[in-house]
Input
Amino acid sequence: MHYIDLKNIKSWAKNYTGSYRLYYPKNVNEIKSILSKKNKIIAAGGFRSYGDSAINDTILSSKFLNKILNFDEKNGILRAQAGTTIEQMINFLIPKGWFLNVSPGTKYATLGGCIASDVHGKEHHKFGCFSEGLNKIKLLLNENEIVEIDRSSNPDLFYSTCGGMGLTGFILEAEINCKKIQSSEIYFNKYLNQSLDSVFQCFEKYSDYDYSVAWLDTIKSNNNYKSVFTCGNFSNSFKKKLKLNKKKENQYSF
Ligand SMILES: Cc1cc2nc3c(=O)[nH]c(=O)nc-3n(C[C@H](O)[C@H](O)[C@H](O)COP(=O)(O)OP(=O)(O)OC[C@H]3O[C@@H](n4cnc5c(N)ncnc54)[C@H](O)[C@@H]3O)c2cc1C
Output
């Protein structure tokens, strides 16, 4: 099985400076064989977490476990392997008129990583975290045991895996609900605020919008903080505009 040894390489948080072995299993049997021989193991997706949460002596990458397995186009239910990225899912869904219920600010995060960190996006006030739209998780508990769980069959394990940072097992696959869109375009409004109070008022006033975010200038000006508040919704009017936005995001990968 393919692996690389990384020495004195720092993770995103730049705290971990040790050496580690990074495995790229291609199927569940390869993961099991590593689990049976090694300890101090952690799963990894796109390495986009702000901390060093996907770093340990032995790392199991989901990079090659990245297939979309099924899509129920009528009900918008997507099943995919854990290493499938946000980018892959969006590229697959948008031309069909669907989108993710919850999407974080990086397209390189994986399905497994989004579940393990229970990520949120700019739709958090409306749709909650990633786990809200999660139906099922297929989880490898150890070298012998695979379980498929949902919130009623095994609530404790389900909820501890959402936001569990990889500590309950290796997520192999998951099934999520998606949301219907009429267009890939978002209509948005932007408001410049000169004080913290006014940006909070914006969040209250525009809470009906599906997406909202504010960027704050943390350097004080006139004894207060300036900010830009943006809120928006997917457009309903241009059905033909279900196209992909090729905007670039900084890329690095192991
Ligand atoms: C530019 C940028 C913007 C971001 N924006 C947001 C945002 O808006 N909202 C937000 O919530 N987060 C945001 N994040 C953080 C990021 O979305 C999360 O940290 C996410 O978990 C990263 O996913 P990943 O696939 O890269 O996981 P990794 O960073 O590789 O791993 C994160 C955790 O998930 C676990 N994990 C990964 N794969 C599996 C698996 N198959 N089975 C079990 N456990 C697994 C790891 O063990 C680790 O604990 C952002 C990060 C960046 C770099």
